[in-house]
Amino acid sequence: LLSLPLLFSAVSAQQNVEIRYMPFGDSITEIQCWRSKLWNKLQGTEWAKVNFVGSGRVDNNCRDNNYDKDHEGHSGFLAVNIANQNQLEGWLRTNPADVITMHLGTNDIVSGNKQVSEIIAAFTKMVGQMRASNPRMKIIVAQIIPVGFGNYPRIPELNRAIPGWAQQQNKTESPIWVVDQYTGFSGTGDNRDGIHPNDSGDTKMMNVYYPALIQAF
């Protein structure tokens, strides 16, 4: 019985710690409303006060002025370039995070013609930078959504490579979860322009991220 007050104090302290969550990626993170949908879904949970962090506040006319718009999405950016230029280091220095979701690789394949091996190497470097910023970083990596035009076999190739890579990179103190944003997502029906999600696509992305984020929080 004497230990109960200490237990309650510990639980109370944990609940008062601010969790910082960074949505990280390209335009599929920057100019999308899945972030708004995610924030609103969290409002009915114990994670309502999770702090979204990042240097950007752009969305796609989500008509929602209440949600936490902070993110680290950068339209047109390639994972390979972000890694080679050490950009994530600076972003995390300015806006430290405890949890990150990463959806990257679309621009590398569609416009950059990068090989899957180059993208995976970039992922490895960025995970190292995340952990240098926070040794207990919780990392959620997305198998990326399909595009609705052209023929890009490297997208499913990248998605097949991600789980094995994540298993190799996983650490108990800094786990990596892989979420499948590809399966069940229509490149034509769930994208407004073939590459950026419409409302149904935003809802699907939010619903895939949500359980992994709850686990990470």
Automatic annotation (TrEMBL):
Cross-referenced CDD domains: XynB_like (cd01833)
Segments forming domain SGNH hydrolase-type esterase: 24-201
Gene Ontology molecular-function annotations: phosphatidylcholine lysophospholipase activity
SUPFAM superfamilies tied to this protein: SGNH hydrolase
Top-level taxon of the source organism: Eukaryota
Listed PANTHER family: CELLULOSE-BINDING PROTEIN, THIOESTERASE 1/PROTEASE 1/LYSOPHOSPHOLIPASE L1
Record's protein name: Carbohydrate esterase family 3 protein
Taxonomic source organism: Sporormia fimetaria CBS 119925
Taxonomic classification: Eukaryota, Fungi, Dikarya, Ascomycota, Pezizomycotina
